[in-house]
Fold:
Amino acid sequence: MPFKSAVSVVILSFFQHQKSSPKEEDDDSPTMLLWMTIFYFPLIADAFTTLLEKKRHIGGGTHKCYSCMSRYYGATWQFAGYSRIYQEPRSFTDNCRNPRNAEIPFVHCEEETSCVTMIEELKIGTGARGYIRGCYSSILLFGFNRTGSVYALGAHTFCHTFNLTQLVSGGRPEESSVHVCSCRGPLCNDSEISTTSSPSLWMAVLLPLLSFFL
Structure:
């Protein structure tokens, strides 16, 4: 039952009691209201819980980030061990490289977290790259390492190149170079990022220091 309906039942029942009771019994009204509240409390609590779940389902208090990985990850998901490192995205598609020109699905992320784009240098040929987009809070199965510039990705906007073993806090990944960009705002992780030109190093070093002193 909807929350408003549950409250309405309590109020209506109280006034019906008031209407049917003699005037001289008005002194019992607070007691009757108390008993009715106790009686209907489970109904109200259940309706209130349903309301909260509904708000969470439609993205209340969240923002959107694109969620995808290059098709290569999907084709080797179990064989290459990616299922032990990443959470499965909404889509495996080569359009993950540039979601602006494609219908890439999104996910709802925690309001205070960043959207992330990761570009991995794949060891399957010269210049082969894999693209990964998602929420900072959920893109990795065990989460990002919670130290230094890796941790700063969750709250600041900047780009930096890491080794995959630096990024993850579990899963035993192999050595691999990954260029990571974080951003703040709905669907902000839609850019086709260059891995050769970004003022990332100083940002990656200074932001954690500033966070420590402020």
